[in-house]
Amino acid sequence: MPAVSTHDPRRATQVTLRVVALLSSVLTVIFLFSFVFSDRGIAELQQARKRVGDLHTNIQQLQSENARLRAEIDSVKRSTYAVERIAREDLGMAKKGEVIYLLPKK
């Protein structure tokens, strides 16, 4: 009498696929849960986005300041009035024969 096999390969394949799908689903849920609620998850991503925004703002301010300073440099290079103004106001210098009155700072 021939031996009868009780092992069905199609059924074993279906069971294996179900186990793999269930395991994948469980791991995906665990990963999403840890991503959302861990310190390295969404909170860190939001902090990084805020830092990037702050840095962009800082860059814009520095670019504006650079443009202002370049304009001031160009003005000084082209005008003797600007050089005289800086010499008088910032350095306290005067032309020959001028008298400077310094007021006390409050």
Q: Low-confidence runs (pLDDT<50, min 5 residues)? A: none
- Major sheet attributes: none
- Number of separate strands: 0
Average pLDDT rating: 83
Please trace the helix and strand order, writing H or E for each element. HHH
Helix-strand category? mainly alpha
Q: How big a fraction of the residues is strand?
A: under 5%
The first-to-last residue Cα distance is: 117 Å
Task: Provide a descriptive summary of the structure in words.
The chain is mostly helical. The protein has a domain at 16-89. The protein has helices at 9-37, 42-78, 80-89. The radius of gyration is 38 Å and the shape is rod-shaped. The model has no long low-confidence stretch (mean pLDDT 83).
Salient structural properties:
about 110 residues, 3 helices, mainly alpha
Condensed summary:
The chain has helices at 9-37, 42-78, 80-89. With 106 residues, it is mostly helical.
List the topology elements:
Blueprint: H1 9-37, H2 42-78, H3 80-89
Helix pairs in contact: 2-3
